[in-house]
Design brief:
six-stranded antiparallel sheet, endopeptidase fold (from Nostoc punctiforme), 5 helices
């Protein structure tokens, strides 16, 4: 009886061991198959080189912001104003012997038969108010240069305008007819408004 029990025990151990080893073999077989599949997936596919007739579909032309062309009339007005550069300041003057800020614009616009009032404060009532970001060549810039006052007493003509840089021609009491930048500290703080008359 003891022999039969011992024999059964040995048989059970052997049969469990063989099924265990079969299970391990199966797992090894499955892991080997999985590894082979992963290797195949990870292989790099050869890249096809484009032929000489193919061209890339990229646009290599640079793009620039659209700039509005200045009308011939405005160009002539600016040219007329610039012809007075260096002329000394003279209150009420409108000639090369001397001129003031409004006299400069009155004369320059008059060269193209555009009638403007004679004073800067009266000019500030003409045309349409525009935002300084929309200023273009030929627009008028108005300033209040007296301390603690916002009353307009100075005017300039925009000669060049691009983002962050606005140039204007005017007649200053100290240097006469000259070109300045709106971004200069003095003019930046004295600026009141911009207007378009053409």
């Amino acid at each position: 009886m003891k022999k039969i029990a011992l024999l059964l025990l040995i048989t059970t151990i052997l049969s469990c061991g063989s099924s265990k080893s079969k299970h391990v073999v199966t797992k090894k077989s499955e892991s080997k198959t999985t590894a082979q599949t992963e290797t195949k997936r990870n292989r790099k596919r050869p890249t096809r080189k484009p032929t000489h007739t193919e061209t890339p579909e990229t646009n290599t032309t640079p793009t620039y912001p659209t700039i509005k062309a200045t009308s011939p009339k405005i160009a002539n007005i600016i040219s007329s104003a610039k012809s007075f550069e260096g002329v000394r300041y003279k209150y009420g003057g409108t000639t090369k012997k001397g001129m003031d800020c409004s006299g400069l614009l009155y004369t320059a616009f008059g060269s193209e038969n555009v009638d403007l009032p004679r004073t800067s404060s009266a000019m500030a009532q003409q045309g349409d108010w525009i935002d300084v970001k929309e200023v273009e060549e030929g627009d008028l810039l108005f300033f209040a240069t007296k301390r603690n006052s916002r009353t307009i007493n100075h005017v300039g003509l925009v000669t060049s305008s691009r983002p962050g840089r606005i140039e204007f021609i005017h007649s200053s009491t100290s240097k006469g007819v000259m070109t300045s930048l709106l971004s200069e500290r003095y003019w930046y703080f004295a600026f009141v408004q911009a207007r378009r008359v053409l």
